[in-house]
Specification:
The structure holds two protein chains of two kinds. Chain A is of the alpha/beta class. Chain A has three domains: 18-58; 68-184 and 354-370 and 382-434, Response regulator (Rossmann fold, 3-Layer(aba) Sandwich), CATH 3.40.50.2300; 191-328 and 443-464, Response regulator (Rossmann fold, 3-Layer(aba) Sandwich). Chain A has helices at 5-10, 18-35, 38-58, 82-101, 121-133, 145-157, 191-204, 218-232, 255-264, 275-287, 302-316, 339-350, 359-362, 380-397, 405-413, 459-464; strands spanning 68-75, 109-116, 138-140, 165-166, 184-185, 210-215, 240-244, 268-272, 294-296, 324-328, 416-418, 426-428, 442-447, 450-453. Chain A is globular, with a radius of gyration of 24 Å. By secondary structure, chain B is α+β, with helices and mostly antiparallel strands. Chain B has a domain at 26-155: 2-Layer Sandwich (Beta-Lactamase), CATH 3.30.450.20. Chain B is 62% helix and 15% strand. Chain B has seven helices and five strands. A five-stranded antiparallel sheet of chain B has the order 2-1-5-4-3. In chain B, a hairpin with a 4-residue loop joins strand 1 (81-88) and strand 2. The longest helix of chain B has 52 residues, at 148-199. The chains are: A alpha/beta, B alpha+beta. The A-B interface holds A 121, 145-146, 149-150, 172-174, 177, 216-222, 224-225, 241-245, 254, 256-257, 260 and B 63-70, 73, 95-102.
Chain lengths: 465, 237
């Protein structure tokens, strides 16, 4: 086993923390006190105070021990959005393993306890309760809007325990507006900002009839609402809409949705979905010779979508990828002029085999050739995971030697501007008490089988192609 | 297994009466169950519409559409609830559960303030749709569509079980009645053969001694009639 193996063994094992041990010690002490004579009991209590306290000091109820800070993650590791969750996890672990090997933060290793929610809200709630019971330090990099929306009320209910959600992989407003903004911190720009940017660019290029293909749930509705708001600013309305059910696979037919789009005849379509459904929709759209430009937002997972479409292109001998534009919330991982991109790529290369989630998470029904996941060397998603981890560690560093959950929000809000080597600053706190570090949205198109940046000035020319 | 002719009419009358009871019970039951289950489903869908309209009006007013969508998504998990959609005060559908899109029939007719709609959606089936106003209808309306096919199936299942039970009871009753009638008519049939053999002078096969002796020893009317025939035979009447 490679260097990250001990860390992997701890991840997702669900083992009891030291705090739980302290609780058992307390109960045992109480039983002894009841059974033995008061003098003996008092003696034992005194011994307990002498020898037991160091154990207690190892971990209070803040999710921190002398050697470890555990983060909790609930995401879809085995269903329709698994590529997103796996890559996000891999990116975060690439940084954390590197950091842990360098001594961690104030001598403590940062680990992630990850559980599979299959992109289902009820499972996300169950996982969150489990992570709270395990007394993790913070909830980290949850994936998905419908899962996060159902989880936030739980954080509000348990606000006395100071559980916070850091850097969820969603641009939904729910974690950015009252009443739940107080329980989360976001790294990425919101979906509203992504759709606003896409709409502005399409309209600037005189593509005013914009339709939407979206997932029939809270995530899709977020994109729909964002598009509606963005179009309203231009005095326009959504030209048409088609939906799909959450969890729809790539192989499914999307002819019903394509038929709606053909009837609407939009000048552009924005997809707010997951990569299998969006890729399937684009495939069926092109198979019916609908050449309208299609835009996807960051959650789609453009690398995973490209992988599916490229395979389909080879089989069908058709062009599925040339009229696609994707909005991203992190810069291109191809841009090695950025120091953090170089660091990210080096970490992904070095820890390639150590950063996969445990197989029990990925293959709950057993590993087969059909279900085996082939990780991407680099991707926008894993890059975001890497930045999430790096940003979280930056906050931890400012908490000194005695971090606790109660001090986490003040520490994040005191972070201010920080440059991780991106060529842009992330910012938390400040005068406005920012809880979203970045407002930046980037646009990419596919050239030569990979994503390349699309500059603002290039939009019109690209749309005319 | 023959039954005496004069009992056959009685038997037929009993069967006819049983059939009448079976049919009338089934009809009344079908009608009652159909009405009660239909009322139940409509009441349920109205309760769902009211729950969404009353408890989530803040989400609608604050335009928190994702949270609203999250709420209505949970309701379509209830068996029988096929779709939910919410229309705002301006007449825009702001959240819905349709895939792959809002059906044309609904897109063409959802803005009235009707409390119920009977809809037939192409390729989807027939639905009873109930609506509830949000803040008295000022902020829009919640629409909940119940699948008529689903509750028709529920009604048919409930009725089917009862009719099945009644049919079994009917068949068992018929067989039991027939058996009892046979028990009654069989001695008469034997006595008839005994009388014809003993008194008519025509060639008639008598009942076997093993069948006749028990009859003559009986203390009821059958025994009395048998003994009377024997006496008439012995006296050469």
């Amino acid at each position: 086993m490679r260097s990250g193996a001990p860390l992997k063994a701890a991840i997702g094992s669900g083992r009891r923390s030291i705090t739980a041990g302290a609780g058992e010690w307390g109960r045992a002490t109480l039983q002894i006190k009841l059974k033995l004579t008061p003098v003996l009991a008092l003696s034992l209590l005194a011994l307990g105070t002498l020898f037991g306290h160091p154990a207690l000091a190892q971990q209070d109820n803040s999710g921190v021990s002398q050697k470890e800070i555990r983060l909790g993650m609930s995401a879809d590791f085995s269903a329709s959005a698994r590529a997103l969750s796996i890559e996000l996890y891999r990116g975060a672990m690439a940084y954390l393993i590197q950091r842990n090997q360098a001594g961690g933060v104030n001598g403590r290793h940062i680990t992630i306890a990850a559980y599979d929610d299959r992109y289902q809200p009820d499972l996300a709630i169950r996982n969150t309760l489990r992570l709270m019971k395990e007394n993790v330090f913070a909830l980290f990099s949850y994936v998905g809007t419908p899962t996060m929306i159902r989880t936030l009320p739980l954080l509000r209910m348990r606000q006395g325990d100071h559980f916070l959600l850091f850097f969820p992989f969603t641009g939904a407003d729910a974690s950015r507006i009252p009443p739940y903004d107080a329980f989360s911190f976001n790294l990425r720009a919101s979906y509203d900002q992504e759709t606003q940017g896409l709409v502005d660019h399409f309209i600037a290029a005189r593509h005013k009839r914009i339709a939407i293909f979206y997932q029939a749930d809270a995530y899709g509705r977020t994109g729909w609402a964002g598009l509606r708001k963005a179009l309203a600013q231009h005095g326009l309305e959504i030209a048409g809409e088609a939906t799909y059910r959450r969890g729809s696979p790539f192989d499914q037919s999307y002819d019903g949705q394509v038929a709606i789009m053909q009837r609407v005849a939009p000048e552009a379509i924005i997809c707010v979905g997951t990569y299998p459904a969006c890729a399937g929709f684009v495939r069926d759209l092109r198979d019916r010779d609908v050449a309208v430009p299609v835009a996807t937002i960051s959650f789609v997972g453009s690398d995973a979508m490209l992988k599916l479409l490229a395979q389909a292109e080879q089989k069908a001998g058709k062009d599925y990828t040339s009229r696609l534009v994707s909005s991203q919330v992190v810069p291109s991982y191809q841009d090695i002029s950025l120091p953090v991109v170089r660091d990210y790529r080096a970490a992904m290369d070095r820890y390639r085999y150590d950063i996969m989630p445990p197989e029990a998470l990925l293959y709950p029904s057993g590993k087969t050739p059909e279900t085996e996941y082939t990780p991407l060397p680099y991707s926008f998603i894993s890059f975001e995971g890497y930045l999430n981890a790096r940003m979280f560690v930056a906050i931890l560093e400012r908490m000194g030697e005695s971090p606790s959950r109660a001090k986490l929000a003040p520490a994040a809000l005191a972070l201010g501007d920080i440059d991780l080597g991106l060529g842009q600053t992330f910012s938390l706190g400040g005068v406005t008490g920012r809880r979203q570090a970045s407002d930046q949205v980037y646009y990419t198109v596919i050239k030569g089988g990979q994503f390349v940046p699309l500059a603002d000035a290039e939009w019109e020319a690209w749309l005319k192609r | 297994m023959r039954i005496a002719r004069f009992y056959q009419k009685t038997l037929f009358g009993v069967f006819a009466l049983m059939g009448l009871i079976l049919v009338s019970t089934s009809v009344i039951y079908v009608h009652t169950v159909d009405r009660q289950l239909t009322d139940y489903f409509l009441t349920s869908s109205r309760a769902i519409a009211r729950a969404i309209a009353n408890s989530d009006s803040d989400l609608i007013i604050n335009q928190n559409y994702p949270a609203l969508q999250s709420v209505i998504d949970q309701y379509v998990e209830i068996p029988g609830v096929s779709y939910v959609y919410v229309v705002d005060g301006q007449g825009t559908i702001i959240a819905h559960t349709f895939v792959p899109g809002v059906p044309d029939e609904i897109a063409a007719d959802y803005r009235s303030e009707a409390e119920t709609y009977d809809r037939t959606l192409a390729g989807l089936g027939s639905f009873s749709e109930v609506t509830e106003g949000i803040i008295g209808g000022e902020a829009g309306r919640v629409h909940v569509g119940m699948d008529k096919g689903y509750f028709a199936l529920q009604v048919q299942t409930a009725i089917g079980k009862v009719v099945y039970l009644l049919t079994i009871i009917f068949v068992v009753s018929v067989l039991a009645t027939y058996g009892l009638m046979y028990q009654v008519s069989r001695p008469l049939h034997l006595l008839g053969r005994y009388a014809w053999h003993s008194l008519s002078g025509e060639k008639h096969a008598p009942p076997a001694p093993g069948q006749l002796e028990p009859l003559l020893e009986r203390v009821d009317e059958v025994g009395e009639l048998g003994r009377l025939i024997r006496r008439a035979k012995n006296e050469g009447v």
